[in-house]
Amino acid sequence: xxxxxxxxxxxxxxxxxxxxxxxxxxxxxxxxxxxxxxxxxxxxxxxxxxxxxxxxxxxxxxxxxxxxxxxxxxxxxxxxxxxxxxxxxxxxxxxxxxxxxxxxxxxxxxxxxxxxxxxxxxxxxxxxxxxxxxxxxxxxxxxxxxxxxxxxxxxxxxxxxxxxxxxxxxxxxxxxxxxxxxxxxxxxxxxxxxxxxxxxxxxxxxxxxxxxxxxxxxxxxxxxxxxxxxxxxxxxxxxxxxxxxxxxxxxxxxxxxxxxxx
Length: 262
What we know:
The protein has a domain at 7-173 and 187-196: Alpha-Beta Barrel (TIM Barrel), CATH 3.20.20. The model has no long low-confidence stretch (mean pLDDT 96). The chain is an alpha/beta fold and 262 residues long. It has an eight-stranded parallel barrel, surrounded by six helices. The protein has nine helices and eight strands. Helix 3 (78-98) packs parallel to helix 4, helix 4 crosses helix 5 and helix 7 runs parallel beside helix 8 (223-233). Helix 3 links the parallel strand 3 and strand 4 (102-105).
């Protein structure tokens, strides 16, 4: 793996001290997943700076996954938006310390929560993201908006078009697509609408009945089709492997490297 590698591997921040040396020895680039309460640890800044030096010295990149539990950039409740802004501002600070160039963020839209009315969510979302995107752009960071519960790409399309910045792109999570969208919109149609906005992808598998984060090939997701669409629409997008079983990480890496040539 070289510093130009497009491939990252999910690593929870709470496991950074334990697993960091393993990542270095195997030359794995981490996507460091942060939870909101992690920021309440006064030692965090020092930990991030130290590991940033370690990964930089090894010629390895870092990406970041922002907190998302109970947070919502498009919330109608101002106090929820305020808490979300605080955590995402802290995330940008952490990403800057780590030298990360990509931060994955959740959009917060759920059809049932908003009664199918995207506008209720979109208006506060546009107001929320605009200053954060400007700040990210100044720091050389791209915010990658991940599909989660979306059943179609429309809400993400409208938000990305409304902001329309090179510092605000799409993180396509193929596992979430398979859970929530596969019977409503094909992979090809999703890429046809949002492929030009894709800057990052999350790779994991499932059988369609749970967010299992299996290694690619152990579920029912058509990864050969995905590979072709990535090559056509987003050939320079970075990739993050999200496999939760550490014993299955090595074979999953072999599969992903073979599929995507990384």
